[in-house]
């Protein structure tokens, strides 16, 4: 059986394909999923670590049921997905004598979720994970490593907005804009669904098993072609933090996990009504506090924190990419809203500033992504391009600082039909090796830093125009791409390096010694999923 997992910052959704009804359905895990009348059975992305060495954790709704989410213990984790693959500033918590990383917490969470599936019991043979469009390879690399520890035959990955377009089951050959706005990220993707004859369904393969999955080669498959993408580290958890800061300033209360939880509930109230109120009792001070807010004041808090300006910037980037391909605003046939944050009336009003209300769909905010991911095994081929580019680091003498020279630009379709060639020589006499530092280049905009504010994990834009870079091989033993024998000397070309991206989106290099005609590295993966 194939299971799709939409691992979110605030909530996680699991879907499976029902062979009887021939329809996708949400999977409910006992004690872990929320039982709600308004929403499908979501799994809160919460972890409480009871024992690190024994990998004993409590996850999902059980964390709330036991009251672990309203205390200040360092064993409680929320929004941990935002710290995976990021350079977190500040001290990571130490539990049971060990420093605990967000990668560890995320792995424990997913392992517990998959174990819960197997207890239902459901035979999990194939998994499909959805990922944010703006995720760097460090996050995808981590996800691949997690998958190796799971007893699952095959694991694939698909961008969340593309999955959402498939989940809404839109008409073929229609251009769609997906606005995926969850707890941690805003992702916008322009997608076109076509009908094509495909030999087999494609996805980003993380792990192959011995069994074969998918449909036979004669089946007609739909292609989800990604035309434009933009992402932002902005989500519902940021709004929760802004509300907490507002009440700390206006009422003088202390920041705590309890206040954050109440702020989240207040935000949900304001999505449904004009006024919201939450009351809590402080066990230490024996005082009660009432948090009240109107929708107008709520939207002013959003405005003061640059919320709508960030939305406009992301929309502008997507529309500019579309225009370069000859696609105008009027060519977009439908706008699909997914994620909990799209339920905020101000967000829906913002979308209507760009598009007619008749084009906007919002009836599947939670389930569209995981259900759409299941289409990968129903005869859908995904064709995509690189959201980030790749480059090499060099020393900029004018700025007296490191700069980055792009080798493979963002927007490049993959797999690449031809490699990029670079010829290098030695820079000093008797040089034993040649080193290169390779990086994944993000958008040229204000950067993002991840840091702790008390027990809150915060993402914040860094002022100034700069290129966000995720280093790929800047570690001991990882920078050297060529050992020279005989030793190298300046004055001649010594090595030729070929760079390309394969069908699984790994950056690979081949290095040839031009003096000896020897291949020093052959199709070596710079970012390799172990």
User: What is the CATH topology classification name of the largest domain?
Assistant: Nucleotidyltransferase, domain 5
Point out poorly predicted stretches: 196-205, 208-221, 444-452
Nearest-angstrom radius of gyration?
24 Å
What is the count of DSSP helices, taking H or I runs of 4+ residues?
10
CATH superfamily of the largest domain: ATPase, nucleotide binding domain
Give the C-level CATH assignment of the largest domain.
Answer: Alpha Beta
- Domain count: the total is 2
CATH level-two architecture of the largest domain: 2-Layer Sandwich
> What is the mean pLDDT?
81
N- to C-terminal distance: 24 Å
Q: How much helix is in the residues?
A: 10-25%
Please identify the structural class as seen in this structure: alpha+beta
Shape: globular
Biggest pleated sheet: 7 strands, mixed
Percent range for β-strand residues: 35-45%
Number of distinct beta strands: 31
InterPro entries: ATPase_NBD (IPR043129), Heat_shock_70_CS (IPR018181), Hsp_70_fam (IPR013126)
Family: Belongs to the heat shock protein 70 family.
Protein name: Heat shock protein 70
Keywords: ATP-binding, Chaperone, Nucleotide-binding, Stress response
General description of the model:
The chain has two domains: 2-234 and 310-377, ATPase, nucleotide binding domain (Nucleotidyltransferase, domain 5, 2-Layer Sandwich), CATH 3.30.420; 386-528, Substrate Binding Domain Of DNAk, Chain A, domain 1. Mean pLDDT is 81; it is low at 196-205, 208-221 and 444-452. The protein contains ten helices and 31 strands. Helix 5 (236-251) packs across helix 6 (257-272). By secondary structure, it is of the alpha+beta class. This is Heat shock protein 70. Belongs to the heat shock protein 70 family. GO terms for molecular function: ATP binding; ATP-dependent protein folding chaperone. It comes from Trichodesmium erythraeum (strain IMS101).
């Amino acid at each position: 059986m194939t299971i799709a997992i939409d691992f979110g910052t605030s909530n996680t959704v699991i879907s499976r394909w029902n062979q009887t009804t021939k329809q996708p359905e949400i999977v409910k895990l006992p004690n872990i999923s929320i039982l709600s009348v308004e929403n499908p059975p979501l799994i809160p992305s919460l972890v409480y670590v009871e024992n690190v060495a024994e990998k004993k954790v409590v996850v999902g709704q059980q964390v709330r049921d036991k009251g672990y989410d309203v205390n200040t213990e360092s064993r409680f984790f929320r929004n941990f997905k935002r710290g995976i693959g990021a350079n977190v500033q500040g001290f990571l918590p130490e539990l049971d004598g060990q420093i605990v990383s967000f990668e560890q917490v995320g792995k424990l969470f997913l392992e517990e979720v998959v174990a819960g599936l197997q207890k239902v019991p459901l035979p999990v043979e194939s998994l499909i994970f959805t990922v944010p469009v703006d995720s760097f390879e460090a996050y995808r690399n981590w996800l691949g490593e997690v998958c190796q520890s799971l007893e699952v035959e095959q694991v694939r990955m698909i961008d969340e907005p593309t999955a959402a377009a498939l989940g809404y089951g839109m008409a073929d050959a229609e251009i769609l804009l997906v606005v995926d706005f969850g707890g941690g990220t805003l992702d916008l993707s322009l997608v076109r669904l076509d009908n094509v004859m495909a030999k087999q369904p494609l996805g980003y393969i993380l792990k192959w098993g011995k069994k074969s999955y998918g449909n036979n080669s004669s089946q007609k498959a739909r292609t989800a072609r990604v035309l434009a993408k933009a992402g932002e580290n902005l989500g519902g958890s940021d709004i929760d933090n802004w509300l907490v800061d507002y009440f700390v300033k206006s009422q003088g209360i202390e920041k705590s996990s309890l206040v954050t939880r109440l702020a989240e509930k207040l935000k949900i109230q304001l999505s449904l009504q004009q006024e919201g109120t939450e009351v809590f009792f402080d066990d230490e001070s024996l005082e009660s506090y009432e948090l009240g807010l109107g929708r107008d004041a709520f939207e002013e808090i959003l405005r003061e924190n640059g919320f709508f300006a960030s939305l406009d910037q992301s929309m502008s980037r997507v529309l500019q990419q579309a225009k370069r391909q000859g696609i105008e605003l009027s060519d977009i046939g439908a706008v699909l809203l997914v994620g909990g944050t799209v339920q905020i009336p101000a967000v829906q009003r913002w979308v209507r500033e760009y598009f007619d209300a008749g084009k906007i769909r919002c009836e599947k905010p939670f389930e569209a992504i995981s259900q759409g991911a299941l289409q990968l095994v129903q005869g859908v081929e995904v064709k995509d391009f690189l959201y980030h580019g790749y480059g090499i680091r060099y020393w900029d003498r004018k700025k007296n600082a490191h700069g980055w020279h792009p080798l493979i630009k963002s927007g490049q379709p993959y797999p690449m039909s031809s490699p990029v060639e670079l010829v290098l020589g030695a820079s000093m006499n008797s040089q034993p090796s040649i080193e290169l530092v390779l990086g994944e280049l993000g958008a040229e905009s204000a950067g993002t830093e991840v840091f702790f504010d008390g027990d809150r994990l915060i993402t914040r834009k860094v002022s100034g125009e700069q290129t966000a870079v995720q280093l790929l091989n800047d570690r001991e033993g990882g920078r050297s791409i060529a050992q020279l024998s005989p030793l190298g000397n300046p004055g001649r070309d010594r090595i030729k390096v070929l760079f390309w991206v394969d069908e699984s989106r790994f950056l690979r290099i081949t290095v040839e010694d031009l003096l000896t005609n020897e291949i020093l590295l052959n199709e070596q993966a710079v970012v390799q999923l172990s």
